[in-house]
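Bumping my old thread because nobody answered last time. Still need a sequence for this structure:
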């Protein structure tokens, strides 16, 4: 401590500025770059509700997509950041905003790992599976249910068709970015008898892995270890090849999803849609 106090004034000023920048990043975007470990990684938290085009009440904990989107672009472009760790504890939110963030993460060359703590509900499901590797704590849960709409809803056939198309975008994204078949995901989404006054399913950590939705059970240390492995095998690190997934429970190391298919670039669902 004595040595820190005796730092040259210029060095102390730089250290204070760096610390202030980290505090501001945590306050504004719920994220921070960690440069003290074996690799430099950026940690992004997705908490509360995903806020989209409409501002939610002040008492709601939110993740604002207008903050997260430029942050992801910055992480992808920053040569010092070697990997991205996404920690989720979300109740869902705006479908369009959530899918926009998920598509950005899915399209990143920077190695990515997600960790679900507490809950990764609704539109949090695509966010969880968008990373190259996904983990879930044994005590965490994921709620899968159909798309809901807030505000004015017209009781016409076109509205039902609109809902169906939005749900299909989510199903396709999850199928392309996880090991769960689309038909099985639809059945979980429409299951009755599990949610009060609603249809859908609640999967705990073990069930989410058994269904193929999430890659592995684990916590923070497992997620960071997997991220380090992806970093060390990435093109940026070894100068050749493509980013690959570590084999998990006998699954192939190729891209997640049917036959290792590349993630599709679909437009997100429409305004007011919520999960």
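Sorry it took so long. Here it is:
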């Amino acid at each position: 401590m004595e040595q820190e106090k005796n730092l040259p004034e210029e060095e102390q000023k730089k250290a204070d500025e760096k610390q202030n920048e980290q505090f501001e990043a945590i306050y504004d975007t719920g994220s921070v770059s960690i440069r003290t470990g074996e690799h430099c990684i950026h940690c992004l938290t997705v908490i509360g509700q995903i806020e989209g085009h409409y501002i939610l009440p002040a008492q709601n904990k939110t993740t604002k997509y207008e903050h997260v989107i430029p942050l992801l672009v910055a992480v992808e472009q920053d040569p010092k950041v070697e990997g991205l760790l996404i920690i989720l504890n979300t109740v869902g939110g705006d479908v369009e905003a959530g899918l926009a963030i998920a598509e950005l993460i899915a399209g990143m060359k920077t190695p990515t790992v997600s960790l679900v703590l507490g809950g990764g509900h609704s539109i949090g499901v695509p966010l969880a599976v968008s990373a190259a590797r996904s983990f879930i704590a044994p005590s965490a849960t994921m709620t899968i249910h159909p798309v809901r709409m807030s505000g004015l809803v017209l009781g016409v056939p076109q509205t039902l068709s609109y809902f169906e198309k939005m749900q299909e975008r989510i199903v396709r994204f999850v199928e392309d970015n996880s090991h769960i078949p689309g038909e099985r995901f639809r059945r979980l989404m429409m299951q009755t008898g599990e949610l009060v006054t609603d249809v859908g399913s609640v999967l705990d950590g073990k069930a989410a892995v058994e269904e193929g939705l999430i890659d592995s059970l684990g916590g923070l240390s497992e997620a960071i270890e997997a991220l380090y492995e992806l970093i060390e095998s990435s093109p940026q690190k070894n100068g050749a090849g493509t980013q690959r997934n570590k084999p998990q429970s006998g699954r192939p190391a190729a891209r997640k999803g049917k036959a290792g298919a590349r993630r599709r670039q679909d437009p997100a669902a429409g305004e007011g849609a919520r999960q």
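DSSP finds ten helices and eleven strands in the chain. Let me know if any region looks off to you.
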